[in-house]
């Protein structure tokens, strides 16, 4: 876990360093662009058009154009590297959260399994498995006898009910016959 913290802090340091470099490149790029002389001497004259000729010589325009190209390329490279590092940092944080959640679930399930094993062991110590099996078979025989008794009782009740229905049907038939005459 400590190596993960060190890796994240290393990425954070790299991101902050690249941000400082990006700001510096942005300022330099703005300065170089503003120093260039347009065809009509616009903002380039504000910084003293003759001064750039003296500093860089007669090839001032070429030097400033190349500087703009190099600074622009560096700006885009640093921006790309920065976006990759920030993306890696964010995905690493998501992975850390999900792995932490999985680890917590695993620990919880292992604790539950350990508790269940302790309960089973305690039950086995209190009541040996052979006694339980014997009691279960006795209970099963008792249940089977009870089921047979219930079957007999239900059969008797159905028979009595059928006989009562037959008697009632005969009585009703007799009444119908008397009513017809």
TrEMBL record:
Record-linked PANTHER family: PROTEIN-EXPORT MEMBRANE PROTEIN SECG (PTHR34182)
Source organism, top-level taxon: Bacteria
Membrane topology: Multi-pass membrane protein
Annotated region (Disordered), positions in chain: 159-181
Recorded coiled-coil stretches: 100-153
Biased composition (Basic and acidic residues): 165-181
Transmembrane segments: 6-34, 69-88
Subcellular location: Cell membrane
NCBIfam families: secG
Keyword Iron-sulfur in annotation: no
Protein name stated in the entry: Protein-export membrane protein SecG
Family according to the record: Belongs to the SecG family.
Main location (coarse class): membrane
Lineage: Bacteria, Pseudomonadati, Verrucomicrobiota, Verrucomicrobiia, Verrucomicrobiales
Pfam hit, one: SecG
Encoding gene (name): secG
Annotated keywords: Cell membrane, Coiled coil, Membrane, Protein transport, Translocation, Transmembrane, Transmembrane helix, Transport
């Amino acid at each position: 876990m400590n190596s993960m913290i060190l890796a994240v802090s290393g990425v954070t340091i790299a991101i902050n360093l690249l941000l400082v470099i990006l700001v510096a490149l942005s300022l330099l790029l703005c300065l170089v662009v503003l120093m260039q002389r347009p065809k009509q001497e616009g903002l380039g004259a504000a910084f003293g058009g003759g001064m750039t000729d003296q500093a860089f010589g007669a090839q001032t325009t070429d030097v400033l154009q190349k500087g703009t190209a190099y600074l622009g390329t560096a700006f885009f490279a640093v921006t790309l590297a920065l976006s990759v590092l920030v993306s890696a940092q964010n995905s690493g944080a998501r992975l850390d959260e999900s792995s932490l959640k999985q680890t917590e679930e695993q620990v919880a399930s292992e604790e539950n399994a350990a508790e269940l094993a302790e309960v089973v062991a305690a039950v086995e110590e209190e009541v040996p498995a052979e006694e339980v099996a014997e009691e279960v078979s006795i209970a099963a025989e008792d249940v089977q006898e009870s089921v047979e008794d219930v079957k007999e009782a239900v059969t008797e009740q159905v028979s009595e009910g059928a006989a009562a229905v037959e008697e009632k049907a005969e009585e009703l038939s007799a009444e119908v016959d008397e009513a017809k005459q």
